[in-house]
Design brief:
The protein is an alpha+beta fold. The chain folds into two domains: about 5-110 and about 125-155, no CATH class; about 175-195 and about 245-450 and about 455-630, 7 Propeller (Methylamine Dehydrogenase, Chain H). The chain is built from seven helices and 33 strands. The chain has helices spanning about 5-40, 45-55, 60-110, 120-155, 185-195, 235-240, 250-255, and strands at about 175-180, 285-290, 300-305, 305-310, 315-325, 330-335, 360, 365-370, 375-380, 385-390, 405, 410-415, 420-425, 430-435, 450, 455-460, 465-470, 475-480, 490-495, 495-500, 505-510, 515-520, 535, 540, 545-550, 560-565, 575, 580, 585-590, 600-605, 615, 620-625, 625-630. Helix 1 (about 5-40) crosses helix 4. The longest helix is centred in the N-terminal third of the chain and has 48 residues, at about 60-110.
């Protein structure tokens, strides 16, 4: 009995369509690979040539705009090409699956009885033809898949482009220069330093907020300048159970600047009486400046009367402790003899280096990590406590994720090329307390630790997710698939909303709760390096090409936008009701954290700068490419 031919006809049509798509996509992937190998998709040589011309003629605004336009278009083309290859590969596999399924269904609906007569020769010819067509098609598909993999692999390595005036100048010697200025009462500063007294008021206050109340149960101040910090729920027994007696209180943390972007790593300082005007060339309001022995792009951190930074090159890795009032190096730790440390340093780009991650402290110890995977803990007197190597990151550009301490856990976002993970190490011994594998791509962002009302959460961003974890256990709280690309900016948090961004991807606001959901999205102003900063009302976003925008934090409406002359690698900081934003030429742009743009001051340090400032009452500490600066009134 013959089987129903209607089903066979349908599956034949499906097979024909699927086969056509397989053929077309295969050809496109092969052509794309050939084109990629013959044409530079990023226009690297052109952009670098334009940057060279711009560095020779820094006042040529038309040329500067041309550089930005070409860079923007080429990067868009690059990421579009990456998306096309990835999507094409998935579609090819999909249609191959459909083709195989339809061929199986055709066979199932065919009459197996074949009568051979005088047409036997013709039948064999058809069979042989189908055989060679299948073989040829299979070879074509294999070639297409291989070229797609090779293209995508190469596209994962974004070419290194020159930066505008981003020149790394190594210091010639280690010396402290005390700047005499009519505007600074140095005798008072020296007197206060001798008595270990703070320079300015001890009140921790933000201009537009209530004073932060004392509460020994609070660990990290919620970065919301419009209201008091939300306390963790008493139901959070995990936190209470694991609370360490020597971990600093919220008040102690807020008096200092213990990590990248301040308390919680969230871009908000709780200090007041912050200077707004200075000049590195004339010495106005520059208390001291210090040449750091080895260069590094990490930002300064502060605890009591000490400032900490690190430096590294192919041969040495060092941690420095500096007297924050006098500007002299109190001690240096040479990080050597780390068990498992590789003999040869990994290859990194000039704008990352081997000492990009910012240090962190809990007031008892200092913690540092370097681009080769070395991690070290040092006590406040400069005595090494423990060290270990986490393994070569293998990241192109290098490793730049900064550290954070929560209670007795040193938190590391180790989203490396192989086996990305979030790590929790013991602050006392360096042993792994917990390790959480992450299904993400390489990320250069840093962890942010905030109190979200019912618990403390570590929040991270990496392609393709923004995710939250318990800082004491590493257990995932939630994740949302909403971001892609090579993620550099860390997230921002305010009033139960998380903000994440990446250049040529998206800016997304995530309303957290029992079921986190996307509140709004925007693709207008996107950052590839600077992290955003948020309040209950506003979100402030800086870009590497020099634009700044202020959003309505709850709706995504753009209140204002402003373009500066230079680009930014530094992240904006909110302090004393104002935004402090350092550009790559070392000019601090200060404006009010308000609904309308109002510039307060523009103050230069006199050298290029890629780092984010640290604050103490009455003082700002800025690491330029050559010096560490102390700025006061």
């Amino acid at each position: 009995m013959e089987k129903d031919t209607s089903n066979k006809l349908i599956w034949t049509r499906v097979a024909q369509v699927a086969g056509a798509f397989v053929f077309i996509i295969s050809i496109l992937l092969i052509v794309n690979y050939a084109q990629y190998n013959s044409i530079d998709p990023v226009e690297t040589e052109l952009i670098n040539a334009l940057v060279d011309r711009l560095n020779q003629n820094p006042d040529d605004e038309q040329l500067r705009e041309q550089v930005r336009t070409v860079d923007l278009l080429s990067r868009k083309a690059y990421f579009t090409n990456q998306w096309q290859v990835r999507t094409g590969g998935y579609l090819l596999l999909l249609f191959i699956g459909v083709l195989v399924l339809s061929m199986q269904m055709i066979g199932a609906n065919s009459d197996k009885q074949v009568v051979l007569s005088d047409g036997t020769s013709h039948f064999k010819e058809q069979k042989n033809a189908r055989k060679w067509i299948s073989i040829s098609g299979g070879i074509l598909v294999i070639i297409a898949l291989v070229t797609a993999y090779l293209t995508h692999s190469e596209l994962g390595k974004f070419p290194v482009l020159k930066q505008e005036t981003a020149i790394i100048e190594q210091p010639e010697e280690n010396e402290v220069e005390i700047i005499e200025s009519d505007n600074i009462d140095t005798s008072t500063i020296n007197k206060q330093a001798a008595n270990n007294e703070p320079i300015a008021s001890n009140e921790i206050e933000v201009k537009t907020s209530e004073k932060i109340t004392e509460d020994s149960d609070k660990v990290i101040a919620t970065p919301d300048i419009n209201k008091e910090e939300e306390k963790p729920s008493t139901k959070d027994t995990q936190t209470v159970k694991n609370k360490t007696t020597n971990y600093p209180t919220a008040e102690e943390i807020n008096k200092n600047h213990p990590s990248f972007r301040g308390p919680g790593g969230n871009g908000i300082s709780f200090h007041s009486n912050i200077p707004i005007t200075w000049n590195g060339e004339t010495g106005e309001n520059i208390v001291w400046k210090l040449k750091i022995p080895i260069h590094g792009y990490n930002s300064p951190i502060i605890w009591d009367d000490k400032v900490f930074v690190s430096g590294a090159n192919d041969n040495k890795r060092e941690v420095y402790c500096i007297d924050r009032f006098k500007g002299n190096i109190l001690w240096t730790v040479d990080v050597t003899g780390v068990d498992g440390s590789p003999e040869k340093s990994p290859k990194v780009t000039d704008d990352t280096g081997l000492a990009a991650p910012t240090l962190t402290t809990d007031g008892n110890s200092i913690f540092a990590i370097f681009g080769n995977g070395d991690v070290i803990a040092i006590d406040m007197e400069g005595n090494p406590l423990w060290s270990r190597n986490l393994g070569n990151t293998g990241n192109h550009y290098g490793h730049s994720s900064s550290l954070y301490v929560y209670e007795n856990v040193l938190i590391l976002q180790y989203d490396i090329k192989k086996s990305p993970k979030l790590l929790g190490l013991s602050t006392k011994t360096g042993e792994t307390i917990w390790s959480t594998d992450r299904n993400v791509k390489v990320s250069w962002a840093s962890p942010v630790v905030v109190n979200t009302g019912s618990q403390y959460e570590v929040i991270l961003a990496a392609d393709p997710i923004v995710a939250s974890y318990n800082p004491l256990t590493g257990k995932e709280n939630w994740q949302i698939d909403c971001i892609f690309g090579e993620v550099g900016p860390s997230v921002a948090y305010a009033d139960k909303v998380v903000y994440a961004v990446n250049e040529y991807a998206i800016l997304v606001a995530i309303q957290i709760g029992d079921k986190p959901e996307i509140l709004w999205e925007s693709d207008e102003y996107l950052s590839d390096v600077p992290s955003p900063v948020a309040t209950k009302e506003f979100l402030f976003m800086a870009t590497s090409y020099g634009a700044m925008a202020c959003y309505d934090a709850k709706t995504g409406e753009i209140y204002w936008e402003h373009e500066f002359d230079n680009g930014f690698y530094s992240s904006p900081m909110l302090a004393d009701g104002k935004i402090y934003l350092m550009d790559m030429q070392g000019i601090m742009h200060i404006f009010k954290a308000e609904k309308t743009f109002e510039l307060v001051a523009e103050s230069p340090i006199g050298e290029n700068c890629m780092t984010t400032p640290a604050f103490s009452d009455g003082m700002i500490y800025i690491r330029g490419n050559k010096h560490l600066f102390c700025i006061g009134k």
